[in-house]
User: Which sequence fits this backbone?
C-alpha cells in the first residue's frame, strides 16, 4: 500500500515536471455494456472539443467491480473516472472516497429524475452522475403468444408466467419458454432472484440484522426459480448473465425474459435483434406483494478522491450524462440505443417516444421502484436487489455461487440455503452487526 | 503458493557418510555468497511476514471502519467455514486424480511411442504440443469451442447422434476441470517418461524378447521398474504445479457451481478479491503455506532417497 502511494506521488511529480501543458489524459474504467461501448465510440467528440485525451479500460462487470473496488479501497489512484452503481455510490461517498459532483457549471440537475438523484446521494451530496438508470420488466414474444392463443396480462403473476412457460417450451426447436439469469454474482443471478424473494414476501435480514435465508419465502422463491429454469430454460443456464440472455432473446430462442429495462433498446433495434418487431413487454411479475418485485439500478460516473485531474474528469462526466449527449447518441446511433432512464427531457423527446414504444413502461417501472420499502415486512436496509451495506458485495457473490450450485443440481435447495445462511451469519458476525 | 519456503533439501552426500572435499580451496565463501543469500531471504521473508501480520488483523477493504487485532478470529471463522475443508478435498482430488491419470496414460503412451513407426516424428510433436499452450488459452478453448452446451463441438457430436448435449461445467464441473488439466499435463508426463525409456539398454529388451516375453510382460517387468525414478520426479513436479492451479478454474467455472471447483488457491483469491477480506485471505494463505511445506518436505525426502545411487 505504502509503496503504491510513493509510486503514485513519484509519477505525479514526474508528470508535473515534464509537461505542464493544458492537454490532460484521463483514465476511465467502465463496463462492456452496449451503452458504454457507444460512449467510447462518441468520446472523440469531447476530445476534439477540449483537446484532452481519454485512456479507456473496458471490462466485464464482475472484473470491473474487483478492479475498481481494490483501487479505491487501497487509494491506488489508477482511475480518474469510474463507473459504479447506485449500490456503491452512497457507501463510498460516506467513506470519503469520492469527489462530490453537485457543483458542475451549466449542468441541468433539475432535469434528472429525483428518484435517481436520491439514489446517488449521501448526506445531501451528489457523488455520481447517472449515465443510465434501469428497472426490470418482462419481455415476451407477441407472435409466439398469439400462435399459442395466450394473452399476457398487464400485471402478470409468477403463476401466470409458469403456465405460459410450460406451453411455450419446444426444446426440439431450441425454443425455450423463459430465459433468466443464472450466472453467479450479486449483480447477476442475485439481482433477479432478489426480486423474486421480495415479491414472495421474503427479505435478507430482519430488523435486528438476523439473516433470513433459511425462511420459507426464500425456500419457495429459490425452488420456483430453479423449476422455471431447469424445466423451461435454455441448457447451460448457470453461465448466462444479462448479456448472454439478451443475445439468446435477440436470436429468438426465448419466449419470455425478465430482466433489465435497459436491454429494451437493443432488442428493438433491427440491426442487432431478429425479434425487433415481434417483442412486447409488461410489468415484472409479482406473487404475494408488489414491494420489491422490480429492481432499481443506475450505472453512474464518479470521480475517486485520488484523482489529480478532477476538473477535467468533471467536465467529461458532465458531458457524458448531459441532455446534449443523449441527443447525440440518438442522432448518431439510433434513438432506441440512447442511455435511458435518467432525464425527464428524454421522455418528452418526440423522436425517442416514436422510436421506443417501451419508453412509458420503463419510466413507470423506474418511478415505482421503491428503494426505501423493498420488502413486505420492514427491514433495516434500503435497496431492492441489494442491501445497502459494504459487506453485501461479498455476501451476494457467495450466496449467488451457492444458488448456482442448486440450479445445476450440485446441491439441494435446502442444502444451498443452509450453507448460505451459515455464511451470511458468519460475515455479519465478523462485521459486528450481530453477536 | 510458494513451495520453497523453509523446505529442506536433504544432502544425499552428507547422508551417505562420505567425506566431502571442501569447496573453494579453504577460502571462507560465506561473505561472497551473503548478498545473494540475503536477497533470496528478503524475497521470501517480506511477503511471508506481511501475510502473517495480516492473518492476525481485522482488515476488510470494503469497510475501513473495522480494524485492529483479530487474535485467532480469522482462523476461527475459517475453520468453522465448511468451504475450507471442501476446498482442501477439491485440491487433493485434483492433484491425485490428475497425477494418477497422467502417469498411467503417460507411461503406456511412452512405451507405445518407443517403438518405431512411420511418421513418428510428427506424432511425437503432436503428442507434446498441448503442453506449450497457455493455461488460460487452453481453458478458453475447452470452455467455448469444445464443452459449450449450445455451440461446442461435443454438443454438436451429441446432437448428431441424437443425444441431449451435456452441460459439462454445470453437471460435471470437477470432472471437466480434471479433463482439461490431464490434457495439459499428459504431454509433460509423457515427455519425461519417454526420454527415460530412450535411455534403456536395448540389449535387455533384446534378451527378454529372445526368452519369449510378451510386450505386456516386458512393460511391467522391465520398462516400468526402469521408469520408477522418472515417475517420482514427475509426481513431484506435477504436485508442485497442480497444488496451485488457478487459471483453468478462474476461466471456466469461477470456483462454482457452489464450491464444487473451489480449491485452496481459489478460496484465497475469493476471500481476498471477491470478499475483500484481507485478514481472512491471509489466514487461509498461512494454512496453505503450512500445508505446502508439509507436502514439499515429504516429497523432497522421498525423491531425494530415490535419486541416491
Assistant:
Amino acid at each position: 500500500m505504502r509503496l503504491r502511494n510513493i509510486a503514485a506521488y513519484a509519477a505525479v511529480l514526474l508528470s508535473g515536471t515534464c509537461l505542464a501543458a493544458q492537454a490532460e489524459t484521463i483514465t476511465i474504467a467502465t463496463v462492456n455494456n452496449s451503452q458504454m461501448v457507444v460512449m467510447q465510440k462518441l468520446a472523440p467528440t469531447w476530445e476534439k472539443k477540449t483537446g484532452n485525451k481519454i485512456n479507456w479500460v473496458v471490462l466485464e462487470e464482475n472484473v470491473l467491480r474487483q478492479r475498481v473496488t481494490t483501487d479505491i479501497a487501497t487509494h491506488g489512484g489508477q482511475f480518474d473516472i469510474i463507473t459504479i452503481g447506485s449500490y456503491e455510490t452512497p457507501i463510498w461517498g460516506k467513506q470519503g472516497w469520492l469527489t462530490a459532483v453537485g457543483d458542475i457549471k451549466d449542468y441541468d440537475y433539475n432535469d434528472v429524475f429525483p428518484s435517481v438523484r436520491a439514489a446517488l446521494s449521501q448526506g445531501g451530496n451528489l457523488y455520481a452522475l447517472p449515465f443510465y438508470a434501469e428497472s426490470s420488466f418482462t419481455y415476451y414474444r407477441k407472435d409466439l403468444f398469439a400462435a399459442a392463443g395466450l394473452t399476457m396480462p398487464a400485471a402478470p403473476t409468477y403463476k401466470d408466467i409458469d403456465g405460459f412457460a410450460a406451453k411455450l417450451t419446444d426444446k426440439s426447436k431450441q425454443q425455450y419458454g423463459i430465459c433468466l439469469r443464472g450466472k453467479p454474482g450479486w449483480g447477476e443471478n442475485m439481482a433477479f432472484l432478489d426480486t423474486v424473494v421480495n415479491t414472495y414476501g421474503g427479505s435478507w435480514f430482519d430488523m435486528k440484522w438476523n439473516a433470513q435465508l433459511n425462511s420459507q419465502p426464500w425456500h419457495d422463491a429459490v425452488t420456483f426459480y430453479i423449476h422455471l429454469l431447469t424445466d423451461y430454460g435454455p441448457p447451460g443456464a448457470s453461465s448466462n448473465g444479462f448479456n448472454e440472455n439478451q443475445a439468446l432473446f435477440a436470436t429468438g430462442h426465448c419466449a419470455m425474459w425478465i430482466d433489465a429495462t435497459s436491454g429494451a433498446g437493443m432488442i428493438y433495434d433491427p440491426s442487432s435483434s431478429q425479434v425487433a418487431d415481434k417483442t412486447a413487454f409488461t410489468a415484472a411479475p409479482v406473487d404475494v406483494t408488489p414491494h420489491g418485485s422490480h429492481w432499481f439500478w443506475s450505472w453512474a460516473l464518479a470521480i475517486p478522491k485520488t484523482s489529480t485531474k478532477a476538473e477535467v474528469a468533471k467536465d467529461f462526466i458532465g458531458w457524458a450524462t448531459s441532455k446534449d449527449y443523449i441527443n447525440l447518441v440518438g442522432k448518431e446511433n439510433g434513438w432506441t440505443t440512447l442511455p435511458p432512464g435518467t432525464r425527464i427531457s428524454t421522455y418528452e423527446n418526440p423522436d425517442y417516444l416514436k422510436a421506443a414504444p417501451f419508453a412509458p413502461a420503463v419510466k413507470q417501472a423506474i418511478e415505482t421502484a421503491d428503494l426505501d420499502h423493498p420488502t413486505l415486512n420492514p427491514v433495516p436496509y434500503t435497496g431492492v436487489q441489494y442491501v445497502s451495506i459494504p459487506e453485501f458485495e461479498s455476501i451476494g457473490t457467495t450466496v449467488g455461487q451457492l444458488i448456482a450450485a442448486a440450479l445445476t443440481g450440485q446441491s439441494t435447495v435446502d442444502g444451498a440455503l443452509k450453507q448460505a445462511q451459515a455464511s451470511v451469519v458468519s460475515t455479519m458476525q465478523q462485521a459486528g452487526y450481530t453477536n | 503458493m510458494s513451495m520453497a519456503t523453509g523446505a529442506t533439501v536433504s544432502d544425499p552426500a552428507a547422508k551417505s557418510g562420505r567425506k566431502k572435499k571442501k569447496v573453494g580451496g579453504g577460502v571462507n565463501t560465506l561473505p561472497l555468497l551473503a548478498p545473494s543469500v540475503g536477497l533470496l531471504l528478503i524475497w521470501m521473508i517480506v511477503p511471508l511476514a506481511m501475510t502473517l501480520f495480516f492473518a492476525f488483523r481485522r482488515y476488510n477493504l470494503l469497510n475501513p471502519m473495522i480494524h485492529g487485532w483479530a487474535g485467532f478470529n480469522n482462523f476461527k471463522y475459517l475453520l468453522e467455514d465448511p468451504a475450507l475443508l471442501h476446498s482442501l478435498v477439491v485440491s487433493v482430488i485434483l492433484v491425485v486424480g490428475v497425477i494418477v491419470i497422467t502417469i498411467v496414460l503417460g507411461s503406456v503412451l511412452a512405451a507405445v511411442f518407443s517403438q518405431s513407426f512411420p511418421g513418428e516424428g510428427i506424432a511425437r510433436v503432436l503428442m507434446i504440443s498441448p503442453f506449450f499452450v497457455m493455461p488460460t488459452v487452453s481453458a478458453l478453448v475447452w470452455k467455448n469451442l469444445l464443452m459449450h452446451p449450445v455451440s461446442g463441438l461435443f454438443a454438436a457430436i451429441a446432437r448428431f447422434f441424437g443425444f441431449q448435449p451435456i452441460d459439462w461445467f454445470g453437471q460435471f464441473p470437477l470432472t471437466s476441470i480434471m479433463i482439461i488439466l490431464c490434457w495439459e499435463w499428459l504431454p509433460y508426463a509423457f515427455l519425461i517418461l519417454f526420454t527415460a525409456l530412450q535411455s534403456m539398454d536395448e540389449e535387455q529388451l533384446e534378451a527378454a524378447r529372445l526368452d519369449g516375453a510378451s510386450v505386456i510382460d516386458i512393460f511391467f517387468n522391465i520398462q516400468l521398474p526402469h521408469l520408477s525414478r522418472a515417475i517420482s520426479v514427475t509426481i513431484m513436479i506435477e504436485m508442485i504445479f497442480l497444488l496451485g492451479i488457478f487459471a483453468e478454474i478462474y476461466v471456466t467455472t469461477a470456483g462454482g457451481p457452489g464450491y464444487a471447483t473451489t480449491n485452496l488457491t481459489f478460496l484465497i483469491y475469493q476471500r481476498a478479491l471477491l470478499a475483500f477480506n484481507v485478514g481472512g485471505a491471509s489466514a487461509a494463505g498461512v494454512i496453505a503455506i503450512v500445508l505446502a511445506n508439509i507436502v514439499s518436505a515429504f516429497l523432497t525426502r522421498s525423491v531425494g532417497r530415490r535419486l541416491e545411487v
